[in-house]
Write a structure and sequence with these properties.
There is one protein chain. With about 260 residues, the chain is mainly β. About 5% of the residues lie in helices and about 25% in strands. The chain contains two helices and 16 strands. The strands form three sheets. A seven-stranded antiparallel β-sheet has the order 7-6-9-4-1-12-11, with no helix packed on it. A five-stranded antiparallel β-sheet has the order 2-3-10-5-8, with helices on one face. Strands 13-14-16-15 form a four-stranded antiparallel β-sheet, with no helix packed on it. β13 and β14 form a beta hairpin. The chain is globular.
């Protein structure tokens, strides 16, 4: 339902997974709560800066497929993250740039052509009730964002008042991340690295993995040859952070993400 005088954005078509996110929840791991927040923190902060917001203002995270929004008031918008097409009011527009969208404009964010997630920031940020100090959607816990769920067609999001007057500008090409089809990741040994055999460690360093379609915001499941000997299942539960690699009992690595 629209509210007279409110600055609103309507979801016309969500991506396969669209959620409200911010920088996530701090100091909640002791309660068994995920930090959640944007999976690609760099792109999320960049979108907010382009829109004239604080780095941690709430915005919309899109996953892989295309999405369409309708602005119900004049607003500034910026889209960052994955490479792909973008149009505002049917005009082709550049990602990683500041744009003015007049009331009634459709913002069409095309499917990711390289990369996986896109971020849509509106001037003033998205206003939703804070849970444990954050607007982030925790899908596993079912709270935050809009009723703890993914966004649906017809949802209307209220925007806060703009904090500053954003001037049209764009990120220089050198500051925009590039996603190669193949990447080499640097790793550091964790507290349980010694539980892997020498053969398993050698295989882990030598194996080429692909990202599984079964991955979620909790973690990237990596498909490849299982490590010999699997992994010990008697590890005492301990704190972890985004970027940690866990080895499943069948020897498959999982790279933890923001909703771990």
């Amino acid at each position: 339902m629209s509210h007279a005088g409110a600055r609103l954005v309507r979801i016309v078509k969500p991506s396969i997974l669209s959620t409200v996110q911010d920088c996530g929840r701090a100091h909640v791991a002791g309660f068994g709560v995920s930090p959640s927040g944007a999976a690609d923190w760099y792109s999320a902060r960049a979108a907010n800066r382009l829109a004239g917001n604080d780095d941690c203002a709430a915005l919309i995270e899109l996953t892989m497929t295309d999405a369409v929004f309708e602005t119900l008031a004049d607003t500034i918008v910026a889209v960052t993250g994955a490479e792909g097409p973008l149009s505002i009011a049917a005009r082709p527009s550049n990602r990683w740039s500041t744009h003015m969208a007049a009331a009634g404009s459709h913002i069409a964010v095309g499917a990711a052509q390289r990369g996986f997630r896109s971020y849509v920031a509106f001037a003033g940020g998205v206003e939703v009730p804070l849970v444990l100090g954050s607007a982030a959607t925790d899908l596993g816990g079912g709270f935050g964002g809009v009723q703890g769920r993914a966004l649906r067609a017809g949802d209307e999001l209220r925007l806060g008042p703009p904090h500053s007057e954003a001037t049209p500008h764009a990120y220089v090409q050198e500051r925009i991340p590039r996603w190669p089809a193949r990447a080499v990741l640097r790793i550091l040994p964790g507290p349980h690295a010694g539980m892997l055999s020498d053969a398993a460690r050698a295989a882990f360093h030598a194996t080429e993995y692909t990202v599984s379609s079964r991955s979620t915001r909790q973690g990237l499941r990596l498909d490849g040859a299982p490590l010999p000997g699997g992994a010990h299942t008697g590890v005492t539960s301990a704190g972890a952070c985004a970027g940690c690699v866990q080895i499943t009992s069948v020897g498959v690595p999982v790279l933890l993400l923001s909703e771990h």
